[in-house]
Amino acid sequence: MLGLLALCIIQFNVHAYVPLDRIVAVVNEDVIMQSELEAKVHTIRQQLQQQGSQLPPESVLERQVLDKLVQNRIQLQIAEKTGIKVNDEALNRTISNIASENKVSLTQFRDILEQDGYNYEQFREDIRNEIALSQLRRRQVENRIVVTEKEIDNFLANQEHQGSIQTEVLI
């Protein structure tokens, strides 16, 4: 009888296995976990509800959020490889600016975030990542912009011809 009870307990434990988390995407050497996807979907869902927007079907929302997470992860990897880093001073200054734009102190801002269900440390990392992505995009745009001497000369000649250049003389 005791053996049968032990066997039942063992079988119950085997069937009661519940995974804690799982990988939903592999991005080069990095992974995106199910818990990260669920947290982001939850955040997006809350934001859409607060805005009064219609929610897309759950499967569509999850797919869009996962695509965005993969895209961000790739861009963050590129930023890291190109040496883009956001130090704590720049991060703190940005967060302080966000708080002041909302006309609250940094402490009040942190309290508001936590009341709305946002983890402050995660918020900091999200802002750090957004700054890094912004710097990466700016760098990519700057690398694509090339203005030749001939283009400058043509522009100045056109401006002169149209009479829109005013000459200043310093004495």
Describe this structure in words.
This protein has seven helices and two strands; from the N terminus they run H-E-E-H-H-H-H-H-H. The chain is mainly α. Strands 1-2 form a two-stranded antiparallel sheet. Helix 3 (58-81) packs across helix 6 (120-144). It is extended, with a radius of gyration of 27 Å.
Write the layout of secondary structure elements.
Elements (H helix, E strand, L loop, with lengths): L1 H14 L7 E5 L2 E4 H18 L6 H24 L6 H14 L4 H10 L4 H25 L4 H14 L9
Antiparallel strand pairs: 1-2
Task: Write a short abstract of this structure.
The protein is mostly helical and 171 residues long.
Strand portion? 5-15%
Mean pLDDT, as a whole number?
85
* Total of DSSP H or I helical runs spanning 4+ residues: 7
Spatial separation of the terminal alpha carbons: 110 Å
Can you give the helix content as a percent range? 55-70%
Which oligomeric form is depicted?
A: single chain
* Radius of gyration over all CA atoms, rounded: 27 Å
- Low-confidence sequence ranges: none
Q: What structural category characterises the helix and strand content?
A: mainly alpha
Query: Which term fits the overall shape?
Result: extended
Main sheet: which strands, in order across?
1-2
Biggest β-sheet, characterized? 2 strands, antiparallel
The arrangement of helices and strands along the chain is: HEEHHHHHH
Number of strands: 2
